[in-house]
């Protein structure tokens, strides 16, 4: 049997979280068209007859502007150190400066690298993949290069096979029925954050955190779950953006969140959402560690 850790790394928005979800066939990590959304190392566990892959999704690798960003960058390094195989992800349009910077960093660790070229569905001509694969092989040492579309689930089977072929022999690292290490309250917070982030633009998505205050069974209906949560922003004027005209945006975020929460929890959900300002929370580890950002 094969088993080991695989770390997915890459610049923001290349599709790392989409990739971990499609490798697993279920969602462990939130996805957004906005960049710099994943904040922690998210573990998902894939089991098959061949063995077990412990997959780590990581925050996007980028220039750091605040304390949260610095913690996120440490998280990436920690998960590279932990990995048996590192999977740098680039987009099918080719190598960008930030991708090269990431390669310079991961080269310092003595690990096997499988390059994933994601978003191949966006290529107008399939032929342009061959020169990109050739170029990648010339520039860096990859044990394999796998073009995929994480969004359209293309070539994901091949990637799993490729990962297994490079993993060491070993027993399962986690029980077979374990899917992730993410605690329930964090999963709930992330679902709400995904909806809030996807309803906002520009610099707002990165300024949002979600704090779950209470999860309890309903008073009358025990099959119902009552969830109280705060959408936290880091300055006063963003509060109004989240709430929207006559509360319309907050209402929409709540509706979308509740829908997904009911599916994930398998219960009816009563969701009470508030918007709260905690000034400059991204500069305050004492605060953002309480939200779950940092080591897990
Ligand atoms: N067309 C296309 N879009 C994709 C593909 N994979 C991901 N995306 C989109 O790319 C955007 C970013 O996806 P994420 O999975 O959140 O990217 P990420 O690398 O995890 O981003 P950060 O966590 O912010 O670093 C989303 O809008 C996805 O739907 C793909 O194969 N094809
Ligand atoms: Mg992500």
Question: What do you see in this structure?
Answer:
The chain is of the alpha/beta class and 296 residues long. The chain has 2 domains: 2-166, P-loop containing nucleotide triphosphate hydrolases (Rossmann fold), CATH 3.40.50; 184-288, GMP Synthetase, Chain A, domain 3 (2-Layer Sandwich). It contains 9 helices and 9 strands. The strands form 2 sheets. A 6-stranded mixed sheet has the order 2-3-1-4-5-6, sandwiched between helices. A 3-stranded mixed sheet has the order 7-8-9. Strand 4, helix 3 (97-106) and strand 5 form a beta-alpha-beta unit. It is globular, with a radius of gyration of 20 Å. The mean pLDDT is 96. The structure holds guanosine-5'-triphosphate and magnesium ion (MG). Guanosine-5'-triphosphate binds next to helix 1.
Under CATH, the topology of the largest domain can be stated as Rossmann fold
What is the N-to-C succession of helices and strands? EHEEHEHEHEHHEEHHEH
Major sheet, described briefly?
Answer: 6 strands, mixed
Per DSSP E runs of 2 or more residues, the count of β-strands stands at 9
What is bound: which ligands? guanosine-5'-triphosphate, magnesium ion
The CATH architecture of the largest domain can be given as 3-Layer(aba) Sandwich
Distance between the termini: 28 Å
Reading side by side through the largest sheet, how are the strands ordered?
2-3-1-4-5-6
- Indicate the CATH class of the largest domain: Alpha Beta
- Helix run count: 9
Shape category: globular
Q: How would you state the average pLDDT, rounded?
A: 96
Could you tell me the radius of gyration in angstroms?
A: 20 Å
Strand content: 15-25%
